Amino acid sequence: MARDKFLTVTSTAVPLPIENVDTDQIIPARFLKATTRDGFGENLFRDWRYDKEDKPKVDFVLNTGKYSGAILLTGKNFGSGSSREHAAWAIYDYGFKVVISSFFADIFKGNALNNGLLPAQVSEGFLQKLISAVTKDPATKIRVDLEKQEIVLVETGEKENFDINDYKKECMINGYDDIDYLLNLKTKIEQFENSRA
Amino acid sequence: MAGKTLFDKVWDSHVVHEIQGGPSVLYIDRHLIHEVTSPQAFAGIDKRGLSVFRPQNTVATPDHNVPTMDQHLPIRDQLSRYQVDKLTENCKKHNVTLYGLNDPFQGIVHVIGPQLGLTLPGMTIVCGDSHTSTHGAFGSVAFGIGTSEVEMVLATQCIMQPKPKKMRINVEGKLSKGVGAKDIILYIIAKISASGGTGYFIEYAGSAIRSLSMEGRMTICNMSIECGARGGLIAPDEITFEYIKGREFAPKGIEYDAAVAKWRQLTTDEDAVFDVELNYDAADIAPMITYGTNPGMGAKVSGNIPTLDEIETGNVATFNKAMQYMGFEAGEELVGKAVDYVFVGSCTNGRIEDLREVAQFLKGKKKAPNITAWIVPGSKQVEKQAIEEGITTILEEAGFKLRQPGCSACLAMNDDKIPEGKLAVSTSNRNFEGRQGPGSRTMLASPLTAAAVAVTGKIVDPRTLI
Predict the structure, then answer these.
(1) Tally of CB atoms within 10 A around B370
(2) DSSP bridge partners of B333
(3) How many CB pairs below 8 A link A and B?
(4) Residue A197: what pLDDT?
């Protein structure tokens, strides 16, 4: 089924310079009881965002009012831990379209790609450059161009390329999903089954 | 041409189609589902007007959010009940076998698969749960997937995956007394870090690994994900074949013999090449425990939390954040720290051998007054065995009570939550901030260490008590 097409995102960004952000921080298990994909953004980073009385913690980056945008900048090994796709849903539902890190956990990366959320991996040096530019001036714009596979610091023109496999790139640009592709392979799948019988 | 690894053999024989510049289309032999990560997948196929392509290849059980007390009563938590009901409804609609609450086969999905003979060597196995790596203990390629992929398997019995790189970890030598499978894997993760295995599939080998029972091997493979690896596997051998023999859904009679002959081929060729190979000495491994907020932050129980000088520069911020959360100091001794809760259970250590080990230690001893302990069997079958073997009686005499099966305090989706600020020693797999309840603090350890802590009320090296 068609998803939103992803071409280019030019936006301000939210810096979360923490390493090993695990999926229990992105969306704690107690919020996984829904049976639909909607509304998880409300509980994104729940225990960092709200105190036990459900009041916003004023010093958390999403609550300071200083930063906003469709890009999340974060430390290495982002999305480690559980396979819960709810983590990708929560980030996307909150309004992010891209997560930039120097290293992603495997399952999270796949889940993000399957939901139109781009996990863009850059060098540690470039990540630090982006984080410091955004921290210094929250109005800093970053352009993420999927076609060219590049991330550009708009003001200075500094850029770096990121990797994505050709198949996933095409899926994201055209809004295709894997199930459509697999359904077209049904005959081949059945042949495979018969060959093993 | 170089030989093939065990992983290559299983993976390659399941590739239906290769996408140029993209992932492989991989056929899945066994699909396990539970209540939390499947409802959106069923909704997806319903929306497309599809039915489950191969319902006989999927097995379902509720485990993540079920209560571990009074399972005969309706689930009190409305959302949990709805999720469990939804699983029942979806399975009925799509002819998927379900082991529901109170069914003799119900339990944690990764405990029941092997126990029922649903997990077999050479299979590809997936589940919407990262600890699916557990099943790799049988020489199968098993890994966790997201809900979109659950939907793919329901719709086509296939998923798309880029082939991971290969790592082999050899542990050679004899394990010392009081050191078990959990200590081996916590030791490995402490060595390579919580992200050291990312992008790899690990084969565990060496005499120390081969000496382990199937349940010990499952504990090792289970935590592969905690170093970032998608999965881990161990070549099947006589111990594997013996374990499988006679299990409910395992091949029987001549079919079993034929299967064993085939399974014997599932080894890594001598000239196969790994992208990374690591070697450890079993004699260097002592009882382990974690002190931080990711499973890579582990140390010998008898040792100290690292000092700041011992932490790599890039990791100082993470270390300090963890110390602040845990309320610990760099360089501090671990032994003697007062503990509030002990949790024995989970897909890592909720099997019968784990309960036996705990019971054997607890026999004739009493629980420390400051400890609240939750001992949760991994499945109805484990529970039944524990009752039959008198384990429940030993536990009760020591001041403990066996609860009912489920994931429980491992991820605290049900009522089994460690209260804010309390310190728990847990046989589960993750010590993330708030993992066992908001504000809870977790130290991961083996069942033996957990039992020793339950008796002394504080962190203790179990070797001093056995």
Answers:
(1) 12
(2) B304
(3) 183
(4) 75
According to the model, what pLDDT value does residue A2 have?
A: 60
Both tokens assigned to B455: 């008796």
The answer to whether A3 touches A116, Cβ cutoff 8 Å, is yes
**Which residues of chain B from 383 to 422 reach within 8 Å of chain A, CB to CB?**
411-413, 420
SS3 track for B240-299: HHHHHCCCCCCCCHHHHHHHHHHHCCCCCCCCCCCCEEEEEEHHHCCCEEECCCCCCCEE
End-to-end CA distance of chain A, in Å? 32
The reply to whether B57 touches chain A by the CB within 8 Å rule is no
CA–CA dist B25, B132 (Å, integer): 19
Contacts of B404 (CB under 8 A, 6+ apart): B67, B68, B69, B70, B71, B376, B377, B383
Whether the model clears a pTM of 0.95, i.e. scores above it, the answer is yes
| Site of tokens 């640009």 | A173
With 0-12 / 13-18 / 19 or more C-beta atoms within 10 angstroms meaning exposed / middle / buried, residue A183 is: middle
CA distance A14 to A27: 18
Instruction: List, for residues B155-200, the tens digit of each pLDDT value.
Output: 999 999 999 999 999 999 999 999 999 999 999 999 999 999 999 9
pLDDT (tens digit per residue) in B233-264: 999 999 999 999 999 999 999 999 999 999 99
Residue of B16, B161, B194 lying closest to A189 (CB–CB) = B16
The ipTM assigned to this model is 0.96
pLDDT of A3 reads 74
pLDDT under 50: residue ranges of chain B = none
